[in-house]
Write a structure and sequence with these properties.
260 residues, mainly beta, eleven-stranded mixed sheet, ten-stranded mixed sheet, 1 helix, 21 strands, 9% helix, globular
């Protein structure tokens, strides 16, 4: 009888310990959703710190923000990180704010639907991937530790990361300001329509460059730097500048395949 009682006590103690471990192992999340109006040609800005940012274009004159805050700590840690959404008919600005004087382990992941032709002026995070799908007004995209990915996009894309890859799938650049994609530790892959007129500069310090599209290379230039022209020389006046660069990685240019 005594041995059975000891066994029950040990079992309860083990169950209690496992419960504590389970509560510590599983993260706590909280979701915030808000929809605000924005004109079809309005502007969106996002400033995040820890977490991914995904933007999807749609055919509505409004912005839908879905933010998920997650922490491995106590749920009260979520209250220390705030999300600010400022909106007007012409501009929606979304920002994540952390306490200044103390560290808190909270990540915020965003999924944002935005008018397809809205201008994405500044989309930034520090630790996380930036992904944009079906947007025609892409501007500055920036992260430090994470990839930058654009699918079915267009605009004057300027993509910058430090530790991550850059993948740009562009129907066309918007104007003479062109496109740039740069990373330090990662590769760059650019997919554009065959025949797109563009003046290319590719800097590939420790890696290889390749293009499956016809390209006229101009001059010897600097070591590890390639200057060339994509598309027909008869459309040179409409050629947009494209600047691609990496330190440790490869650069590839491929033909954009139709998704229809």
């Amino acid at each position: 009888m005594k041995s059975r009682s000891l066994f029950h006590r040990a079992l309860l103690a083990c169950s209690f310990t496992l419960g504590l471990c389970a509560s510590a192992a599983f993260p706590v999340s909280r979701e915030i959703t808000k929809t605000v109006p924005l004109r079809a040609d309005g502007t969106l800005e996002i400033s995040n710190v820890n977490g991914a940012v995904r933007i999807e274009g749609w055919d509505r004159e409004e912005v839908e923000v879905r933010a998920v805050k997650t922490t491995p700590e106590k749920e009260s840690a979520l209250d220390q990180v705030s999300i600010e959404i400022e909106s007007s008919p012409d501009l929606v600005s979304i920002s994540t704010h952390y306490p200044q004087d103390e560290g808190v382990e909270v990540a915020v992941d965003y999924i944002v639907h935005v008018p397809r032709h809205a201008q994405l002026n500044h989309v930034n995070t520090v630790n996380g991937t930036v992904r944009v799908v079906s947007s025609d007004g892409i501007g500055d995209l920036h992260t430090v530790n994470g990839n930058i990915e654009v699918y079915e996009g267009a605009g004057n894309v300027h993509a910058q990361t430090t530790n991550g890859n850059v993948y740009l799938e562009l129907k066309h650049p918007a104007d003479s300001r062109g496109v740039s994609a740069n990373t330090t530790n990662g590769s760059v892959l650019l997919a554009v329509p065959a025949g797109l007129p563009a003046d290319l500069e590719a800097r590939c310090m420790n890696g290889n460059f390749s293009s499956e599209l016809p390209m006229v290379v101009r001059g010897a230039g600097q070591p590890r730097v390639i200057h060339g022209r994509l598309g027909s020389t008869s459309t040179a006046a409409n050629a947009a500048p494209i600047h691609l660069g990496t330190v440790n990685g490869t650069i590839r240019i491929i033909a954009l395949r139709s998704t229809v």
